[in-house]
Write a structure and sequence with these properties.
Elements: H1 3-20, H2 23-28, E1 30-38, E2 44-45, H3 47-56, E3 60-73, E4 77-90, E5 96-109, E6 115-126
Parallel strand pairs: 1-6
Antiparallel strand pairs: 1-2, 3-4, 4-5, 5-6
Length: about 130
Amino acid sequence: MDDERAIYTLLEAWHRATVAGDNAALLELVCDDVCFYTAGSPPLSGKEAFAAALQANTAFDIDYDWQVDDLAISDTLAYYCGRLRVHMRDRATGATHTRHGHTLTVLRREADGAWRISRDANLLAADNEEAY
């Protein structure tokens, strides 16, 4: 499988695992030293911190629409810039929230040859159809 196809396969697996609430599968798709950056919050660093954050989201059904606008691949590093619209529904109250914005994700090919998410930055804001 070529690198571009492998990366899109990773992104599709990420979507399936997110929608299914499969936190174990999500953890397999990130590097041990993963770091997530979101507006207004300190960086979320490391797989252990990411696992804890996933547990905090179990009260929500999550789905999202995504689009890759730019993908660049080097030997062991790749990045993509894209757009994301996340739909969250609180299972207890039924309240829904939608956020959207642009993202920058850095991927790394690890020793086993698999591409994994290394760094992710998203600038999600309250939904506004025109801004997406």
